[in-house]
Amino acid sequence: MNFSKLEFxxxxxxxxxxxxxxxxISLQKLEKLLSYPYLISTTVLYIISFLFFIILITYIIxxxxxKPSVYKxxxxxxxxxxxxxxxxxxxxxSIAYYDLNTNLSRILWIIGSSLHLLSTIAILSYWIRxxxxxxxxxxxxxxxxxxxxxxxxxxxVNHANSEISWFFYSIGIVFWLLFFTIFIYRIxxxxxxPEKLLPTFFILIAPPALGFISYLKLTxxxxxxxxxxxxxxxxxxxxxxxxxxxxxxxxxxxxxxAYSFPLAAITIASSLMYSITNIIIYKLIFFTLLTxxxxxxxxxxxxxxxxxxANKICLxxx
Length: 318
What we know:
Blueprint: H1 14-33, H2 40-65, H3 67-74, H4 85-97, H5 102-129, H6 144-151, H7 153-159, H8 162-189, H9 206-219, H10 224-241, H11 244-248, H12 260-277, H13 280-309
């Protein structure tokens, strides 16, 4: 990427961190299941942490040099939804680091959850005060600010009073139900999503999958509600896989990374289902999803590097 393109460096680059960190946590689940040391996952985690700081520093430089471009991005009806990918990345890193460095995990969790609460309030305030939005602006990326709230209890129950985690969980679950209803109306009765945003369909998997994981952490029990969340996430995964021909036609965009984190979420959820129930089908689902996710992560990395070399990323957009 040329330095001259810094002005167009998008916030959505943090979605790469989300996907890779989610994948790292999936690897940790695999290593735990096989009673292996956290060797591969830890190596990957350190690489991701370095990449996170590279992206963060790059965006800070962009902010210092091109403030109008940053403000424009944060007032865009679609791009603003990617702003919390930064705070979600911090929260995910806190989860990934928990077994390696509890104190670092706690610091990251406090920073990530605090900033995410502020970003949730800021984005909701922006949404209710503007007059430019139309129903066709609504897309699965709008779920991103909400997903972070559902994510916080996963490690929050280990770092603070559980009531704090319930606070964030309640925000996330209620808004997920509201947003999902709006999205179904939008996708059924209005124009289809533009090609560039089609990968964001996979974001729909994340709220119920993460909702299941967080609920399990909060209650230590797989009850009827937990099963509803898991099986709905699994159904969405199967349904979206069945739309392979639609997704296979899409040329590479940075939005492809929207595939990765939700797939990691349902993969992790499946590992937890197996570890608690010891039912073999969940183990098979976990291994199948992890294999697919591993292959897809490699494809994403190669395509991203290829796009950067070809100067197809960080281009001016509407």
